[in-house]
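Workshop exercise sheet. Pairs work together: one partner reads the sequence aloud, the other fills in the structure field after running the prediction. Swap roles for the next sheet.
Pair: D.N. / O.F.
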Amino acid sequence: MAEASTEYEHPLMKVYREQLNCGFPQVRDVFDDCMAEALSILSKEGVDAYLEAAGFLCRMGHGAEPVLAFLEKWPAVAEAVGEAALAPVMDGIRTMYKSPNGKAILPFLQTLAAAARRLRSAEQMQCYLDLILNFMARTTGSIHGIHQTFPSPGLPEFFRQIPLLLGQLSINGLKNWVEYGVRNYGDHPERQEDYFRLQSSDSRAVIQRERSGTLLIDHERKLDLYLRGLWRDSDHFVPYSLHFDILRKPVPYYDQLGIRLPDVYDDFAVPGSPLSISGLDRYRAVLAHIVGHKRWTTAVFADNLSPFQRMAVELLEDSRVEALAIREYPGLRRLFQALHPVPAESACDPKTASCLRHRLTMLSRAILDPAHSYKNPDIIEFAKRFHDLMAQGESGTQEMVDLAVAFGAKTRLQSDQLPNIHFPDTVVDYRDDNRQMWKFIEEGDEEEAFDQDRKVELTEELKGLPPRHYPEWDYTSQTYRPDWVSVYEALHPPGNAADIDRLLAKNDALAKRLKRLLDLLKPQDKVRIRYQEEGSELDLDVALRSLIDFKGGAMPDPRINMSHKTSGRDIAVMLLLDLSESLNEKVAGSEQTILELSQEAVSLLAWAIDQLGDPFAIGGFHSNTRHDVRYLHIKGYSEKWDDDVKGRLAAMDAQYSTRMGAAMRHAAHYLENQKADKKLMLILTDGEPADVDTKDGRTLIEDARRAVKELDTKGIYAYCINLDPKADEYVSDIFGKQYTVIDNIQRLPERLPELFMALTK
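Structure field:
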């Protein structure tokens, strides 16, 4: 397949190969496909850095696997956290390479994309890399504390568990979990390995202890729908950690890259109340506030305002956008009031501390809560002035500036200049930092520079599509290996459609017998569809009514026809063909190969399904290691059974191995989107799942078994037709009772359509 992909080769592909300068055959086989994905995501500078990093990994002396993992994973990582993350990632790899921990590089790269999808920002990725390097430095053994000699026992296991860990912990929770393991098992290699493999009881206990709060990544889709459905906004979410920047204490904000949110929110206990606000509702409050600014705030000049005045403007503008949001969705008032602090009126002593923040927070609370208990006449007056302004309409940011200046002038105290500032109950943590509401004359009036389009212009269309990455089940650890398999899909090359017509003509007698059976299976229930402008026959009732209307001078209804459709059969079919090398073997007692008989059988089956009118698709697959699984589209659901499809079927070729689980998951990607009551996947194969990079024969059998379970949860019925006489030894492990073994392969053209009809009767 690698040769076929050069038909429409990108003009710079040869240059890219020379720039990579890597001689591993496995890398050459998938390089063009990896570059297709990279060119669609990375900038020109990003592509150069990508090839330079891959070249270093190739020359590192650890074989082809690290290069393959990097080439496949990095575009997805760059899309999730940005191209700039490559430099610190490569610094981390070089640090591992120079230490005894070189074997940890491969699991690090294999799980990097899964980690990036959970972290979702460059800042979070940097925290993750810092954590790794600290972990490695503290657990790598040395002789007399001078030369590092022994690799970290827990580091490779840590990387293998990262997808599971980041699925349950925030980055800070992960840091605490690692800290516990390093502190307690730093000098016990076996126990350290068990801890980071999640085999020890205290390892699992610490995870449970650190699993607090609501992780943004777990609810991102729900929040995205909330943002789109209620606020008609579709910004990206970029998480940050609240625990890695102790001094700056970041708060939510938005810019041209998206909305910045904490990676985790704990439930919020409302003071003085048994109620609590869930982490998900806290995210909703933040998003409502930020979208309010995006919709109603206009940037104003900050140059003529003092820092104190700006603080007052920001607070009143926050109150304004919340008031407008509450007008649109009144239920937000309860949420905002629960999260907004309630500063006690007498909490700040102006003789010893600056009370400006305290006064402003009291004003904000008084505006939000009409039932407030404050007695301060200035708070009461300006809360009323605020509501009077809002009663006139939406008001505007400039009106808030004027009101804030007036409030500052009337309530200003000499003690506001004191360095001792009163902070308790003044932090409204669901509000953003308001950076977007200010503009500065001294910085110039140039438009803000947004990121340039990062995609490289392609002068010619690249062959095929970027790979899809699928997990693979590891039965030894009972966990998934994330993004383990790369599936490359393409349209099958065309052939001569007349070859398939000759096969159908050869089986004309069988086709006639099948036709009689098919007629019994065809849906017999007719459903009448009335009120059609065009149809198969006249609807007399409607036609007479229209004629009466016409003669009475009224506008007649033109929908005087009706049509019919059949009902009672709603099945979508996916026929998945194993195209591995073993199909080239000849059938015992025949001059035909298994592939030729399969072509004959599939042609008859496709003809039969087409006669029934069921939507169906045909796909073929073979594999050459987990890095190179090929899925070939022979017929799509939207295509008719015509010469184009027959031509692809006639050109079927068999080569390489059988990584069945990945192919089934990819075929399910198309089948599950079909609107049908029953979804059937027929897998035609001549042997057990196997591949050249898998030594344990049970690995791919167990993965295929897991894939069948996954299909079942999606409402897809998987059924295997196996041509291997020894299939009984393994096929039931994969498909349970959902299989048939055809010992006499020469009867395949007859048996395959009959099996289909029996399954869909």
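Discussion prompt: Confidence is low (pLDDT under 50) at residues 1-8, 443-463. What would you look at next?
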